[in-house]
C-alpha cells in the first residue's frame, strides 16, 4: 500500500473585511457580545462576482507553488464545498480548467463544514490504492452568500475563504489514519431548506438561507470533536500528548476551547484562526493549516490532527505526520 503526504499548502481570503463594528450597524448586536460568545472579531467577504472557484484557484496556485509542482502534475482534484458557482458543473472541473490540468477525475464533495476533511480522506484513498500519484485537495466556500444578514444568530459567525493542499504518494506516512462519519437525523439543526430538487421557490420566508439552532449544534459539536479525536488517537496507540497540533473546524472560539479542555490538550497546541476568519465552512481547516505552516508553527515531522464537523451532521478526523 502507498502512503500519502502533504507536499504543500495554500490558502486565500477575499480582500473585504467585515468587522463586528460593521455588524453593529446592520443588526441588533454588540461587538462585545460577538467576541464573548464566538471569539470572532472579523471575517472576510467575497466581492460581488467573486466565486468559490475564484477563491479555490488562488489557494490551489499557492499550494502548488509550495509543493514545487506544476498543475500538469496533478492527477486528481477533490474539492469540498457547499456553495458551488453553479448547480453543475462542479467547481472541481472548473478549477481543473483554470489550472489547465485536463483528463484526471475532478469532483466536488458536499459535507458542509467537514467538506475538506471528507475530500482529504477520499484523495488519500485514491493515492493508497495507487490509482493516482498526486492530488489537489481543496476546501472552499462563499458561505456568506447563503447567510441571512438579518439573522443575528448566524450572520455573526461566517466568512468566506479557501484552503488547499497538494497530496502526493510517499513511501511512509504522511496520513496515518482517517475516519469519517455522519448522522442525518440532525438535518434541521443546521440547514438551508430550499434546494434544487425540493424547489428554489421560497416556500417560506428566507428558505434559501442557512438556519441554525446554535446552542444545540454547539453541544453536539463539542461532544463529537472530543470523541473522534479520542477514537482516532486510541486506534493508533497515541495519546493527546503525542500531538504537536490540533486543527479543529474553526466554528466558534468557545467550541475550540471546550474541545481542548475535554481532551486535556493545552490551547497553545491548537491552531485557532476564529478571531480573524470566522467560520469559513469547508475552508476552515485547510486555511488554519496553511496559516500555521506559513508562520512556522507547524514544522515538517510534526504530528497533526485535523478535525471537521458540519451540517448533516457530518464529521471526520485525519491524523498525519506533516
Ligand atoms: O460550522 C458548523 C457548526 N456551527 C457551530 O458550531 C455553531 C455553534 N453555535 C454557536 O456558535 C452559538 O450557539 C452561537 C454563537 C450561534 C449563539 O451563542 P449562544 O451562546 O448559543 O446563544 P443562544 O443562541 O443560546 O442565545 C442566547 C441569547 C438569546 O437571547 P435570549 O433569548 O436569551 O433573550 C439570543 O437572542 O443571545 C441572543 N443572541 C444575540 N444577542 C446579541 C443571539 N445572537 C445574538 C447576537 N447579538 N448576535
TrEMBL record:
InterPro entries, per the entry: ACP_syn_III_C, ACP_syn_III_N, FabH, Thiolase-like
Pathway the protein contributes to: Lipid metabolism; fatty acid biosynthesis
A cellular component annotation (GO) from this entry: cytoplasm
Tagged with keyword Nucleus: no
The EC number(s) this enzyme carries: 2.3.1.180
Keywords per UniProt: Acyltransferase, Cytoplasm, Fatty acid biosynthesis, Fatty acid metabolism, Lipid biosynthesis, Lipid metabolism, Multifunctional enzyme, Transferase
Keyword ATP-binding: no
Catalysed reactions, semicolon-separated: malonyl-[ACP] + acetyl-CoA + H(+) = 3-oxobutanoyl-[ACP] + CO2 + CoA
Location in the cell: Cytoplasm
Described purpose of this protein according to its UniProt entry: Catalyzes the condensation reaction of fatty acid synthesis by the addition to an acyl acceptor of two carbons from malonyl-ACP. Catalyzes the first condensation reaction which initiates fatty acid synthesis and may therefore play a role in governing the total rate of fatty acid production. Possesses both acetoacetyl-ACP synthase and acetyl transacylase activities. Its substrate specificity determines the biosynthesis of branched-chain and/or straight-chain of fatty acids.
Family, per entry: Belongs to the thiolase-like superfamily. FabH family.
NCBIfam families linked: fabH, PRK09352.1
Name recorded for this polypeptide: Beta-ketoacyl-[acyl-carrier-protein] synthase III
Lineage of the species this protein comes from: Bacteria, Pseudomonadati, Pseudomonadota, Gammaproteobacteria, Candidatus Competibacteraceae
Annotated gene: fabH
